[in-house]
Amino acid sequence: NHAAELTAGYYNLDDRDGYRTIARMLKRHHASLNFTCAEMRDSEQSSEAKSAPEELVQQVLSAGWREGLDVACENALGRYDATGYNTILRNARPKGVNKSGPPEHKLHGFTYLRLSDELLQGQNYVTFQTFVKRMHANQ
């Protein structure tokens, strides 16, 4: 079901990639593509919602990369756990780290939303520090 997408006026169906059309338009206007929910996992969503954020993020980012756009992401929820951070890392470099040069597909930027006191406390902060180092490929 793609009711929200259809309501917004574009068609993202099994045989038509609506996000690729948007990426083409952004390319014509020399824009970048920024998408949200980089930390969300399919298995963490209510089955009633029939939501597939992992698939959606990959579809949108892939559409941008295929059109040669600078692609960026951000998180939607306040997450302080390794699972959420690892999901972001998979989206940031879906083919991993290339030791002989820059990866073929990578995020141009990432915006960390929800900076809070909770993030900066104890193990949450240690886990966040590890995430930041891994985002920079431990460099």
Describe this structure in words.
The protein is mainly alpha-helical and 139 residues long. It has one domain. Helix content is 40%, strand content 7%. The protein has 5 helices and 3 strands; from the N terminus they run H-H-E-H-E-H-E-H. A 3-stranded parallel sheet has the order 1-2-3. Strand 2, helix 4 and strand 3 form a beta-alpha-beta unit. The chain is globular and about 45 Å long. The mean pLDDT is 86.
What gross morphology would you assign? globular
Give the proportion of residues in helices: 40-55%
- The string of secondary-structure elements, in order, is HHEHEHEH
Largest sheet: 3 strands, parallel
Work out the radius of gyration: 16 Å
| First-to-last CA distance | 42 Å
Strand arrangement, major sheet: 1-2-3
Percent strand equals 5-15%
Number of DSSP E strands: 3
Point out poorly predicted stretches: none
- The number of distinct helices, counting runs of at least 4 residues, comes to 5
For the record, the count of structural domains works out to: 1
Mean pLDDT: 86
Task: Decide which structural class fits the backbone.
Answer: mainly alpha
